[in-house]
Amino acid sequence: MNNMSVTYKIFRGTPEGRIFAAETTQALGHNQVFIETLLSGLCGTDQHHLRHGAVWDANCVYPIPDELDSVSAAPLMCAGATVWSVLTRFRICPKDRVGVMGKGGLGHLAIKLAAAMGCEVVTLSGSESKRQEAIKFGASEYHVFSSGSPPSKDFKPLKHLLLCGNVDVDYSSLLPLIDSCGSVHPLTATFEPSGIPTLQFAFKGIRIQGSHVASRDDIRSLLEFAVQKKIVPNVITFPLTIDGIEGAMQTLRDGNMRYRGVLVRKGLEV
């Protein structure tokens, strides 16, 4: 594969939020392969990274199981991998009481995956509107909770809490939610400092645990688990074109994505 080059379409974002198409040419180095992009999952970080292909080290790629359609696989390899790396790396066990705060793109997959692992999943959301869906996805309990407000008197503390929603979290309000020696896993982040009451967290032995980007082995095990447990994300598809990308990003900004967007190349629409 040495001395070969590939030319493919890329989509770039402007400061005004518009999308324009261009082409790029890239040489293939030792042990590199060109992966053509037929479908792409979408999240807020993707506005400057959408393209019709990519060059990767052959040691970093992996197959998608035949039993899993590509539209479902795309969000699993992004939001699903983010959740999976937490669920499988940090001593989260079946029957543990696991809270999921926020039921969006990350949160709905956190509910499905944790429930399939045998955890007791507790969903925390800012309104009643998503209760029935959360229960359908596998949640054992659903509580309306707003950051800064106390939980209900009968709330049973959590062993683990996955923060999958608004990045502006009042960490002091999380203290009554977490059991002693429990853990908080922030899956969304901000460049702004977060006010964390370290003394109160220390007294209860509560750990705030970050997570690494999912490895190839993580994603392969996730895809195999998704096939075994028949887990698929809830998606809205858009064409992988300028208009489709702009429409998908606007849907995401408006908070109307239910629950992950997938961009699909022409001829592969579902």
Automatic annotation (TrEMBL):
Residues 105-226 form the Alcohol dehydrogenase-like C-terminal domain. It comes from the Eukaryota. Pfam families: ADH_zinc_N (PF00107). One of its GO terms (molecular function) is oxidoreductase activity, acting on the CH-OH group of donors, NAD or NADP as acceptor. Its cofactor is Zn(2+). Keywords: Metal-binding, Oxidoreductase, Zinc. This is Alcohol dehydrogenase-like C-terminal domain-containing protein. It comes from Petromyces alliaceus.
